[in-house]
Amino acid sequence: MADQRKISVRKILQLITTIIVSTGCVVAMVSASKIEDDKPVKDVAVHIRNDKKYHFIEQNEIMDLAINHRKINLAHTPMSKLDIHGMEKVLLADPWVAAAEVYIDNERILHMYVTQRIPVARLFQQDKSSYYIDSTMSIMPLSKNYVYYTTIVTNVPDLLEDSASNALKKRIVTLVRNIQADSFWNAQISQVIVDSAKMFQFIPVLGEQRILFGDLDGMKDKFGNLFAFYKNVLNRIGWDKYETLDLRFKGQVIASPAIPYTGPVDKAAVTMNWINSIVEVEAKSDSKDSVKDAIESAEIAKEKAKQPSKENMKILARPPKKVKLKEADIKDKKHADKKQADKKQVEKKHPKEEEKAKGKQVNNKDKAHPADPKNAKDKNKDSKPIDNKDHNEKKAKEEEKKAKDKNNKDKNGNQVAPKYVYPDKKNN
After folding, report:
1. Are 97 and 134 within one domain?
2. pTM (predicted TM-score)
3. pLDDT tens column, 262-279
């Protein structure tokens, strides 16, 4: 019995100590958390998950919605008094916010994660007001920061929160998402119209037709029939032949012509005839223009030949302009004048004297060129009129002198060069 009592007392003591320690730990943790909760947050971090592609809401707007508009002073407000759930509700109330999450981490930083809504279509009501709609059929107003280009749906009636409006919203979203899923139809269909019966019509980018699509029953088959009509009919006869394409009937495309239809023609022959006609017209016009120009130029030439123009008379009445000649031109001119004077003198002489003069001219050419500066004075003298008697006497003396010079030889029999007498020495 004594042993059993001792064991029971020991267990009791262990239980008591465990309770005391656990309560102490709890008290310590509670006191520590209270101390931390009394401290304010260090910083605020705002995160927008899809901000790289869409910019409907900015970080400063999130700060205004969650903190600034609620007049919360983070520097003097303890973390325990911050209404985190209230912040999330305020952010979710914004029409452009799809999801929001707010929390404080161990480093006392307030994090706010926000996801933007992605529009599916832009709806234009009958009163010309517009707004966006997303895949969840939520309506978003136009953003002041960003314009998003998406499929346009026009002539939309007023959408309320009733079952009929929700059904129309669902049909619009379903149709637009199917159009955007196909790259061809997303590029081809520029506008979706809701008619009075709440059926759909399309305005295409290529072509001027109005496509009557109807309701969404057999939607994929209707798009397939329209694509086949584009490929097999419009590509051959042209995209402007029809005004309306009706897809409302199963397995059919009813086309209403916009202009009278003409059968297919040989395009190659048409283009060649067109080119030949252009060439012929241009050739005729060129020939007519050339004949007209020739006639006009001939008439103008005749008139000018008959009547001298005033400008030509003025030119003739003007005195000749004095032109400054170069030294080489002056020498050539003097040489030409001398030749003419010599010719005139030779014509007046006896035939025998003409032959002698010709021989003298040839010898003078071989000895010195008239352009030689040493003979400049002789040219000036020769250019003056000379009497025939004096001229003949000078020639005779020159011939006698030449004969003497040829016979001048030294003692050894070698030819001696004639002595040149300067004009100044002669005069002396």
Report:
1. no
2. 0.52
3. 555 555 555 556 666 666
